[in-house]
């Protein structure tokens, strides 16, 4: 099945995104690396919980499905090459998030009522 895909798919149709010769193993590797790297982030962090859930779900699909077109359909987030690009981007973001440490307390407390908004209606004439 993989060989017919390679013979049939000459382009992704997306400028700058070449056809990957063997996308399934590449995607599995990226998802596994993402899950491994998440271990450096506290389990209580919302970012870790969200990315872990999405990545685990996608990894399960890719591991259980051989047919690339079925993987693309099941994940419903683009072609395999796009999924690879998304996974690479997430790994890059993950490294930045580790440095930012958004799960830690703020150095300076937020001002009182920072997240409360009041809206007043303009009762003037138009």
TrEMBL record:
InterPro entries: NDUFA5 (IPR006806). It is a peripheral membrane protein. Residues 70-97 form a coiled coil. Its main location: mitochondrion. It is found in: Mitochondrion inner membrane. It holds the Pfam family ETC_C1_NDUFA5. One of its GO terms (cellular component) is mitochondrial inner membrane. The keyword Transport applies. Keywords: Coiled coil, Electron transport, Membrane, Mitochondrion, Mitochondrion inner membrane, Respiratory chain, Transport. GO terms for biological process: respiratory electron transport chain. Belongs to the complex I NDUFA5 subunit family. This is NADH2 dehydrogenase. The lineage of its organism: Eukaryota, Fungi, Fungi incertae sedis, Chytridiomycota, Chytridiomycota incertae sedis.
